[in-house]
């Protein structure tokens, strides 16, 4: 039994003795060769339509798999396609990072949307525990449903959930540990971007911390971002140990010293740039390998990558105000007594910069670092100074 099913090549010696059988084999081999050749030629001529068919099949496949990932038990395919077009409110999923980044990097070839859509802004909170200044943000978002989406990345050890009815309820994405200065901070930022990209309506992406506050009301920030022709990723060249000093020659030949940039990690970018960031598998691995720890990847990866590849569309400034005037590795914190209408007014309009090629005094839309005990004053002044509608 075992011998009969053996590989014919291993028993080649015996087969040579049976002449008629080998002639039949030879003829059949020739037949298959000619048949194969003909088939190959036909296939070559039809290559164009063949590859097109393959593309169509692939697209069907990706829509099908993506919808099965987001729904657990409902397998009605009509329903699932709807959810692919307009993502459901539940943002939890069981994709790992590799699967998530791959799925989020897909770009529709047809530019027009097959459904009614208003561009949304994705507010992405990179935080440790709870959203500290949640009541202020609740006030900020109130009345603007449908024009924003919220994503929260917090420490995996934090297991409390925001209360039902809060805009932050159910907005946590699958998160991993983040350590200050480590390259895993960028991994978390890419995770936030990828989750937000799954919703096709999100056109602008803002990264915020737990100590960030908005300096303007929602409608002003929405117009500022949606009308902007540029991205807001701060980038500058800095000599000395905390600038070029953090560059490593091991990054050659991908990144040269004169391409090394520094800037704040708190960015605002459009959908095109967000896709480039999560799809980057050339520059980011260099940072993963050679910019971990005291290199502070969060202050260099985006400024360097964006300047090298997409500098022309970058404003090179940040929209998030912060006070470095006190010195040291961390910016100044603001407590209750610091928060006055004059102080907030100064942050809102006491600066000068360019917006869409014109001079303006609206340079910062957000500010940090505000502590929890400043919350009651912020809530009190927001409607007056920031024109939050009540
Ligand atoms: C699937 O969806 C349909 C329509 O929304 C609903 O009526 C049905 O109960 C769902 N089935 C399951 C198993 O959730
Ligand atoms: C959250 O974690 C703490 C310990 O860190 C534990 O005591 C508590 O039961 C957890 N709560 C929930 C809702 O899982
Ligand atoms: C800015 O965008 C808003 C809506 O996003 C629009 O109503 C407004 O006209 C725009 N302003 C300018 C100056 O383009
Ligand atoms: C980065 O450094 C930390 C410790 O400093 C280490 O735990 C981590 O594995 C390193 N990550 C990479 C990707 O090398
Ligand atoms: C920002 O820097 C890039 C080069 O990195 C440059 O091409 C671009 O013009 C700069 N943008 C502005 C607004 O100055
Ligand atoms: C938002 O603030 C601007 C001033 O920054 C004000 O003109 C506008 O009326 C406010 N919008 C709402 C809806 O309150």
From TrEMBL:
Q: Give the stretches traversing the membrane.
A: 23-45
Q: Which Pfam families match?
A: Branch
Q: Where in the cell is it found?
A: Membrane
Gene Ontology cellular component list: membrane
The protein's UniProt keywords, in alphabetical order, are: Glycoprotein, Glycosyltransferase, Membrane, Transferase, Transmembrane, Transmembrane helix
Where does the protein principally reside?
A: membrane
Q: Which domain of life is it from?
A: Eukaryota
Q: Name one GO molecular function term.
A: glycosyltransferase activity
Membrane topology annotation:
Single-pass type II membrane protein
PANTHER family the UniProt entry points to: CORE-2/I-BRANCHING BETA-1,6-N-ACETYLGLUCOSAMINYLTRANSFERASE FAMILY PROTEIN-RELATED, CORE-2_I-BRANCHING BETA-1,6-N-ACETYLGLUCOSAMINYLTRANSFERASE FAMILY PROTEIN
Output this protein's name. Core-2/I-branching beta-1
Species name: Abeliophyllum distichum
